[in-house]
Design a protein that fits this description.
With 260 residues, this protein is an alpha/beta fold. It has one domain: Aminopeptidase, CATH 3.40.630. The chain has a seven-stranded mixed beta sheet, sandwiched between helices. Helix 5 links the parallel strand 5 and strand 6. Helix 5 packs antiparallel against helix 7. The longest helix has 29 residues. The termini are far apart.
């Protein structure tokens, strides 16, 4: 039996929010082979993103670390086997038995099978659907005392639309970006830009390939200005404000989906 590595809550309506990199745990048989510390794992994961899925009635949250299996990469790259797969990090103490990777890929397959069923049902019920694919990204790569990355290439919110038919879904995407920018965010309006650092990973690509006429997934990457990416300490007020900002977009996005 394959372990389920995600939590699912099904609600009503065509909006789904996912946080597939929120998970931190790894299964016991893999843990003994990991060279990475918990702190190193946490730094490359997307902590707190699961909280933002509450903006949608239907929510999918990953429960395992991306270092066990990465649900946002193509299957052949979903297990990090070398440091080149993992930002130069040494993931394993030695070469783990191949069977461990095979079991991780079985979890990957189970996830996508379940999502096929879920999205098929939602599309049948509502005609079209939209996925908020929520992530975060690091911007202090030079260490805890190093400089922050230049803001020119690191927006507070990067909207990835590179895997979709942008022209077809323009009313939905434009409504999302415009309302997110207009939200009265504490300290000033959010810097929201499209396809600056990220264009969208395998999860939205898979959605657009399998539901080309009725499904759109917006890859939403928040720079980790809402936490200390080196210590993991959250800024609770900022995290709550981001949730409010996402919730603020929902009426306009659903209206554009209906009219589109």
């Amino acid at each position: 039996m394959v372990d389920q590595i995600w939590r699912l809550q099904v609600g009503s309506g065509p909006l789904i929010a996912t946080a597939i990199h929120d998970g931190h745990e790894v299964r016991d048989e893999l843990n003994e082979h990991l060279a990475l510390s918990e702190t190193d794992r946490l730094r490359e994961q997307d902590p707190f993103t699961g909280r933002w899925t509450h903006v949608a009635p239907t929510r999918v949250i990953g429960t395992r670390s991306r270092f066990e299996v990465d649900l946002n990469r193509p299957r052949e790259k979903a297990v990090y086997r070398t440091s080149e797969d993992a930002w130069g990090l040494t993931v394993w103490k030695e070469d783990p038995p191949e069977g461990l990777f095979e079991r991780s890929l079985a979890q990957y397959d189970a996830f996508y099978d379940a999502m096929q069923s879920l999205l098929q049902e939602i599309s049948q019920q509502h005609g079209r659907f939209i996925v908020f694919d929520i992530h975060s990204y690091n911007h202090r790569r030079h260490g805890p005392d190093g400089p922050h990355a230049e803001s020119d290439g690191h927006p507070q919110v990067n909207i990835g639309t590179g895997t979709m038919n942008r022209e077809r879904w323009a009313p939905v995407i434009d409504a999302f970006i415009e309302t997110l920018r207009s939200f009265d965010f504490p300290g000033g309006r959010l810097d929201v830009r499209e396809n600056v650092k990220f264009f969208g990973g395998n999860w939205p690509r898979w959605i657009h390939e399998n539901f080309p006429d009725n499904g759109v997934a917006i890859a939403i990457e928040f720079k980790k200005f809402f936490m200390d990416e080196w210590t993991g300490e959250p800024d609770e007020e900022c995290i709550d404000a981001i949730g409010d900002a996402l919730r603020f977009t929902v009426p306009a996005v659903l209206d554009a989906l209906r009219r589109g």
